[in-house]
Amino acid sequence: MASKHTHREISKYNRFRSPSPPVRSVSLRRSASEPRTDTVLLMNQENLILVTGATGFLGTQVVCELLQHQPHARLALLIRPQPGQTPAQRAESIIQPADSPRVQVYAGDVSEPNCGLDDLTYQRLAAETTHVIHCAATVRFDHTLEQARHMNVDGTRKMLDFAAAMRSLRSFVYVGTAYVAGEREGLIRENELDVGQHFRNTYEQTKAEAEALVRSRLGSLPCVILRPSIIVGDSQTGVTSSFKMLYWPLKIYSRRLWRTVPGYPDAVLDIVPVDYVAKAVAQLAFDESALGATVHLCAGPRGSATIERIARRAAEYFHVREPRYVDPKIFFAAVRPLLSLALWGRKRRVLVDGRAYRDYFTMRMQFDTTDAERLLGPAGIFPPPVMEYLDRLLHYCVASDWGRKEVPAL
Fold it and tell me: For a disulfide at 2, which of 84, 201, 241, 345, Cβ 3.0-4.6 Å?
């Protein structure tokens, strides 16, 4: 686990970081063709939504929501090139052919100067963009602090600078995480950030630093800060493209590879389905009353569940015995060192890989959702309780063999 970090490091980092480098021209690596003059004119008459992280688990769903519920809007997707795959090819997997005329794809990287765009493209997007949804981030727990800051903090800084140049900007939606709360306990309020908490990993710390940057621009930019908790598959179908976080321990548990949980039965897992989060993001991006707010997109006290409840249902579903709970202090001080010497093969691998998730079995915090209910309630957008759709998640895991095979759409 990453070493502990205090709130002083957040303010220290923001205070002594040098300003972003001046915008410089880089070669355009956009995979979409230049729009025609009549298209540019049309864009000037409509909303243009710039989305980062569009090919990620959440970003993909946000794009689909925007295309469906903003029929007169156009989308500009900033996508990082990957070896052997252009941004346009990456976008093809998430954009239906009928929607492609409304979507422009740009090769770029939020951690680079100009976000990886040439001056002409940068200036044109700055002139035409009306809404920004910044989803791009690294969600890995094992990055060094420098690596995580490069993407999460410096990337957010560059997007904020880009937004400051947008003459028609109406909202800048920053998608953060509820786990900027770090190792706090009790009820976490939406308006709280730095209260002296420690962090479990560099992901949590750098997302807290990035949110602090966004908060520092609230006086000059129309920002909305959104904090999802643990995002899982669709609440109706169970479909997911990401088998991390909750899914990893469920997988090894279902395969009888591990039964001992170094955690507390009453530890709270706040889980939200990706369809709820995507709908909330798309809704709040166009809600003027949300400007300046920080919103927990979480199940909250009414919808979350304890590890014991989730594990008991998983045991019934997978036909395995219920887990054994061991005090984590005892486990990591005495049991784990012995197991490291005794275990080999797959079980030893489980022991190693499980380190990234161990702290999430000990959480005793709840996320207040007062502002979320106030802003999203009138639109009928609420997170379903975890236990209402847990079976659908489990069914998809089994049907897809944990993401190894395709499941026909219903």
Answer: 201
